[in-house]
Design goal:
Blueprint (H helix, E strand, L loop, with lengths): L2 H17 L8 E5 L2 E8 L2 H14 L5 E7 L13
Parallel strand pairs: 2-3
Antiparallel strand pairs: 1-2
Length: 83
């Protein structure tokens, strides 16, 4: 990893996630060896796909690993049964 240029690109990606329509402040971006690791929870699968698309664009040429969990905000289909 070219430290200077790559760190700049990662910082720019982090800033873009914070200010764009996705506004995902809960997504952590870290470097792990030669790869970039994205972790956190996002509200929808569409947000996850958008973040991955942005990462592909902003971090082209860098290996990106993603562990982004989609939070389920739907109400339960039936009442919970307590035993």
């Amino acid at each position: 990893m070219d430290t200077g240029e790559d760190e700049y690109r990662i910082a720019r990606f982090r800033e873009r996630l914070a200010r764009d329509d996705t506004a995902e402040l809960g997504v952590r971006i870290e470097t792990r060896g030669t790869a970039v690791l994205l972790t956190g929870t996002v509200p929808t699968a569409e947000h996850r796909e958008e973040i991955l698309r942005l990462a592909e664009t902003e971090l082209a040429g860098l290996p990106v690993r993603a562990d982004l969990v989609v939070a389920s905000v739907d109400p339960p289909e039936r009442p919970e049964e307590l035993l």
